[in-house]
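Hello Y.,

Per our agreement to keep a running log of every chain we model this quarter, I'm adding this entry. I've kept the format consistent with earlier entries: sequence first, then predicted structure.
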Amino acid sequence: QLQFVQSGGGLVQPGGSLRLSCAASGFTLDSYTIGWFRQAPGKEHEGVSCISSSDGSTYYADSVKGRFTISRDNAKNTVYLQMNSLKPEDTAVYYCAAHGAVTTVQAMCVMNPYPAIYDYWGQGAQVTVSS
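Predicted structure for the entry above:
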């Protein structure tokens, strides 16, 4: 059974940290470009961070640079989004997605920040940053 199971998320105070995870089963992540996306209430989807399968290049949205880190553990077939120094404006539903076709991190994160168009996507996790 092919699954991309997302975990993490929750309520955190401003300045706090969270880590989101997406674990793949039934397919191997190392050949997929991975993206993390978010959608805040009343707003469009935004590409938060993407990592390439070919050269490990990464993309970060300007709003999260220096605070968020994307990584992948091929041995565990899992990808992560470490989120530090969280701000109220980071509040959103976060999704992971995996794309098996040749693409760039800019194409995935900037041009097509819609998780449901990719080969696999997580179920979404609410991240709320509030005091």
